[in-house]
Amino acid sequence: MKSRSIGNILRVAEIGLGCMGMSEFYGPTDDSQSLQTLERALELGVTHYDTSDMYGAGHNETLLGRFLAGKRDRVTIATKFGIVRKPGDYARRIDTSAAYVREACEASLRRLGVDVIDLYYAHRLNPETPVEETVGAMADLVKAGKVRALGLSEVSAATLRRAHAVHPIAAVQSEYSLWTRDMEEAVLPACRDLGISLVAYAPLGRGMLTGAVASREQFAENDFRRMSPRFAEGNLDRNLALVEAVKALAARKGCTPGQIALAWLLAQGPDILPIPGTKRIKYLEENVAAAEVALTDEELKALADALPPGAAAGDRYTAEGMRGVNV
């Protein structure tokens, strides 16, 4: 694959791998299967692996640590802190105090089995803690050689500018796809003004843009999407209708709807880095192959017109989850 820059600090393959589903949120997990998928990703040229200390309450970082043994110099690891929760419990609190930044980083380094984290994000921000305090503590980690680059997730443009004034921010990670385009209004322009890359999570619309979703009933009982407003009765049918344009173009081009969705994102600019998540080799290979799908200007416009900002029915998260975005 071609490579892209993260804030002019890191260089990674243009399509990364989101590892969250290997630990929870999307039904049953299997460590053996996940490790095989991680190995195959590296064979295919994937170099950007995204995790968090809250995925499986540390399990995901530990899993990545097993994979990293003997290949640390070939892999860029991004992890996050700030969301504090217990294993198997969706209840959470946000801690972005300076003391917790230091504590969380040390714990992540141990679980990952590394000396330095390539890209360290504040996963969410606690509005009661000034972002200057949080980023100041993160900057100290850079000075100490424990972290190479800093990131923020789901922040507002105004907060991003305040943070960047304390220490250069290399990346903002936000949900971005054909059915989640709200960051195009203010966050993405701010990123471009400041030279910050945008790492797009859920670039396949949590599976919706693959064309494989037909009903909530196909999801396991512990699948996050059973609680997601966009997959709720009433909203789901409206959102499925949006995907028809993606499916039609995929049929004409002889590729999959998911590949169309990823190709559209890649075409939005060299500063966009999608990290589609999967725990299965089959879907990993499909996602990576999207880098070879070329869309014409006319096709890009048709997709953007068919799925304009705000077209998706329902919020991205529950009311509780939405309180943590655009802070």
TrEMBL record:
Gene3D superfamilies: NADP-dependent oxidoreductase domain (3.20.20.100). It comes from the Bacteria. Residues 14-305 form the NADP-dependent oxidoreductase domain. The keyword Oxidoreductase applies. Keywords: Oxidoreductase. SUPFAM superfamilies: NAD(P)-linked oxidoreductase. InterPro entries: AKR (IPR020471), Aldo-Keto_reductase (IPR050791), NAD(P)_OxRdtase_dom_sf (IPR036812), NADP_OxRdtase_dom (IPR023210). This is Aryl-alcohol dehydrogenase-like predicted oxidoreductase. It comes from Azospirillum picis.
